[in-house]
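step: validate -> pass
step: tokenize input -> pass
step: predict -> running
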Amino acid sequence: MHSGAEMIDLSVVIPMKNEEANVEPLLEGIAQACAEVSHEILVVDDGSEDGTGTAAGRMNARLGNVRLLAHPRSAGQSAAIHSGVLAARGRIICTLDGDGQNPPSELPKLFEPLLSDDTGRLGLVAGQRVARQDTLSKRWASKFANGLRGWILKDGTRDTGCGLKGFRRDAFLALPYFDHMHRYLPALFRRDGWEVLLVDVSHRERQAGQSNYSNFRRAIVGIPDLIAVSWLIRRRKKARPEERDLAQQDAARHD
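step: predict -> pass
step: emit ->
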């Protein structure tokens, strides 16, 4: 889907489903947070039944750098992120949830380390929520799931479900795709040999709309996903090639 147009610094990808009321404040906040870098905003409408797409169009008329992708039917958050990254023109990608609970003001914590990285080894900057503004049942369910995941995968993060993440576009597209993969990005990036930076980010209450997820639904899909990711880590490629200078090698042979 990537058009081959000139690359820019940053693409902010937002998966959204029935979030019409959150589009305007969220995109305004993103524009302010990313004003110092060349960027675009990709709204991925994952089968919404409200005016999410129309609201994104209004914001493009105001900001001029908003793009809209639409799934004809809901395919889930990971599918929406993947579609957005494929279409993105930014060499660095940032994601955040479309419900407004991830403050856009936290985005520089994600993209600045990646844009300034001169080692070529940093692949992912992952947010970890502090002082979460969720229901008690959701916080307990998340704490249990994160504890189990951390014990099995040893991925080093306490909050892999945070929507605030920044990463290299090329590195992300090299990962194996599967539904719900967005919850395992620290483990998957480390599997491929990338360095992962964890940063604390704030969290806020949902201002409009209602959640598209339930604790039961997350638990049902989480167990087989966890097993699958553990298998992928164990079956990772164990060696990486080093390119040799054939001319230098040939000269050494004739010395």
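step: describe -> The chain is about 40% helix and 20% strand.
step: cleanup -> pass
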